[in-house]
């Protein structure tokens, strides 16, 4: 048996290739379940597809509040340009390199260690601690949705995404569209006989740029303004052919009050107003990703508990702000369960080559998660 410290746990997690797609989280989930069942947790695997599973581990210390520590097991594809094998953890000084080190196997490793410390503490006699580590966070949220029974009745949830040990209380949502423009293909020597789909897309892109300027005027108490960004374009079949097809991808970041339906209506209204030489453009639109904004209030009880825990651990006031990416807080808070985001590592390390996490932050995260749980359990009546 190895020494259960966050760095040693993380070293053993990184080699599991849970790149999503396809995920293949089952082997890692089983390894974690085996580790936790050996120290007193009641564990189960929650399948969500072939080769895919989340782990739910519960430690009941007595009747009281229920705290869930949540993280995801999948990672994004590695891509090229790494200095070493991304699935072989490498330690240089205070940094541990490897895919998922920051996003977010590092947070999961810290939660495992904190959970074990709580489980072994006989002085804690009230409360339930659940460790819920899910599959498929990076794409379709199948893991969290299949585990809803494990967290829907929770009093408080902490999501271990990388926040550099800051308390992040809200995030913008994301909805993405594939927009196909339908023209008429013809010979480029007689362009008047066709309808250039690339030109239609260009006109639409200009209109969407103005839409983004309008969005920038919308302000939120915590979150940045909503945005709309054209992220990809594809069109044309030959350098002597007027293109009959062109497509763009649009990423729209949402704030509370936005929804996938409302944003789709906005964009359709803009596209319906676009014309090229007096002709309305023809298009079709597919919404292929939608995760709405999530968050809790600055003065909510969970935030106050987190601030107390942070100050107790580190002797200083915590930074409280927004999480700059999208995560599964939205799914949780939509069920009226309070959740914050707090974890080791930087979001700037997510999805890049040579990803790393600071080892000292792993140890600090263990302190925070453990202290947060202890504070909640002490308040149990």
Provide a brief overview of the structure:
The chain has ten helices and 20 strands. The chain is an alpha+beta fold and 381 residues long. Strands 1-2-6-3-7-19 form a six-stranded mixed beta sheet. Strands 11-13-9-16 form a four-stranded antiparallel beta sheet, covered by helices on one side. Strands 4-5-20 form a three-stranded antiparallel beta sheet.
Describe the overall structure.
The longest helix is centred in the C-terminal third of the chain and has 21 residues. The strands form six sheets. The chain has a six-stranded mixed beta sheet with strand order 1-2-6-3-7-19. The protein has a four-stranded antiparallel beta sheet with strand order 11-13-9-16, covered by helices on one side. It folds into two domains: 253 residues, Zn peptidases (Aminopeptidase, 3-Layer(aba) Sandwich), CATH 3.40.630.10; 119 residues, 2-Layer Sandwich (Alpha-Beta Plaits). The model has no long low-confidence stretch (mean pLDDT 97). It has 381 residues and is of the alpha+beta class. It starts with 5 loop residues before the first helix and ends with a helix. Strand 1 and strand 2 form a beta hairpin.
């Amino acid at each position: 048996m190895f020494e259960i410290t966050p760095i040693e746990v993380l070293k053993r997690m990184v080699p599991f290739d849970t790149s999503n797609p396809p995920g293949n989280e089952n082997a890692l989930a089983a390894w974690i379940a085996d580790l936790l069942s050996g120290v007193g947790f009641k564990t189960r695997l929650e399948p969500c597809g072939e080769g895919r599973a989340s782990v739910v581990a519960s430690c009941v210390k007595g009747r009281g509040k229920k705290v869930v520590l949540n993280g995801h097991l999948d990672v994004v594809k590695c891509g090229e340009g790494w200095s070493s094998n991304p699935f072989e953890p490498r330690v240089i000084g205070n940094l541990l390199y490897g895919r998922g080190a920051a996003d977010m196997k590092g947070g999961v490793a810290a939660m495992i260690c904190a959970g074990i410390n709580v489980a072994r503490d006989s002085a804690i006699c009230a409360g339930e601690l659940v460790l819920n580590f899910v599959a498929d966070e990076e794409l379709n949220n199948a893991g969290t949705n299949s585990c809803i029974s494990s967290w829907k009745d929770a009093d408080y949830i902490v999501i271990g995404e990388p926040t550099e040990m800051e308390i992040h209380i809200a995030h913008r949502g994301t909805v993405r569209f594939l927009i196909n423009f339908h023209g008429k293909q013809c010979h480029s020597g007689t362009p008047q006989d066709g309808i250039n789909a690339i030109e239609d897309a260009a006109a639409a892109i200009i209109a969407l740029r103005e839409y983004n300027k309008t969005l920038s005027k919308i302000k939120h108490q915590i979150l940045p303004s909503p945005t709309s960004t054209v992220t990809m374009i594809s069109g044309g079949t030959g350098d002597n052919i007027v293109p009959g097809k062109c497509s763009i991808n649009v990423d729209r970041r949402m704030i509370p009050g936005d929804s996938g339906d409302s944003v789709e209506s906005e964009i359709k209204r803009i596209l319906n107003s676009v014309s090229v030489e007096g002709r309305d453009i023809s298009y079709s639109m597919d919404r292929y990703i939608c995760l709405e904004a999530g968050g809790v209030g600055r003065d909510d009880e969970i935030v106050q508990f987190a601030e107390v825990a942070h100050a107790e651990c580190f002797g200083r006031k915590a930074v409280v702000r927004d999480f700059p990416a999208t995560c599964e807080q939205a799914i949780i808070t939509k069920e009226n369960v309070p959740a914050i985001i707090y974890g080791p590592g930087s979001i700037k390390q997510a999805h890049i080559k040579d990803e790393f996490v600071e080892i000292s932050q792993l140890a600090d995260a263990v302190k925070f998660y453990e202290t947060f749980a202890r504070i909640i359990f002490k308040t149990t009546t």
